[in-house]
Amino acid sequence: MTTFKALVATKGETAPNLAFTDFAESDLMEGDVTVRVTHSTVNYKDGLAITGKAPVVRRWPMIPGIDFAGRVEASDHPGFKPGDLVVLNGWGTGETHLGAYAQKSRVKGDWLVPLPAGLTPAEAMAIGTAGYTAMLCVLALEKHGLKPADGPVVVTGAAGGVGSVAIALLAKAGWHVIASTGRAEEADYLKGLGAAEIIDRNELSQPGRPLGKERWVAGVDAVGSHTLANLLAMTKYGGAVAACGLAQGMDLPMTVAPFILRGVALLGVDSVMCPKPRRLEAWQRLATDLDREKLAVMTTTIPLDAVIETGKAIVEGKVKGRVVVEIG
User: What is the pTM of this model?
Assistant: First the structure.
């Protein structure tokens, strides 16, 4: 029987029970492509799954991990053949389908994206769902018709994964980027990625007025709750905020004033079930638009057996930038 190393989560009373084990290939779930996983990453969502802080996992037992990059070992899908390098983000992996913290994964070929030319598997996971989501946010703002000449853009959760990549992408595109963070010690890091201004997240995280002073024309928000409400209340006439996260909460305590008095738009961004054409567009743009040197600056690399500790740290706000997991 063929086995491989995997992190397996079983249901516990207050938090998942986690253990590294030899997992049987025959126990993988249905799919038409089997991938030898070489790299993964740790997103905020992975931290929630590992700690049980939110009900991310909806099938037990589960191999956590929502992202992977690797090489196709076997395929019955017409779009992929053995030897192809591929990337997967979302589609319920690590939630309802056995995920990425393992040396092998069997998935539907329709979930996979070819590794873009010029990117290594490690770089793809340095980007991961966080970076891919950041690119989806940038695309949403562009499709809304916004451009750097219209005014500044604000990025919340700036030192996190989504925020770090969003700053690098927006700065390279010519935007004046305002970075909101609760970690003042990361100011040099954020400016190195391209942030022109740093503001304390406390300016945005408390209950605010229905309408505030117009400060930016665009925003990328991974925080939600009062932070998102204040972003919208301070967005300039005709501007928009792309929202993709809920680190502060999934409530939105605000009025309709920004929408009907300033024509502000709230652009919801989903990465999990995003249609494949948009995924391909995002990954191609990441391959061409993301500064590799800045990507390297924001990235740390860990072995698979450090995933549990890192998952806990990311939920506690102790992880900066992006994390690559070498599966081995």
Answer: 0.93
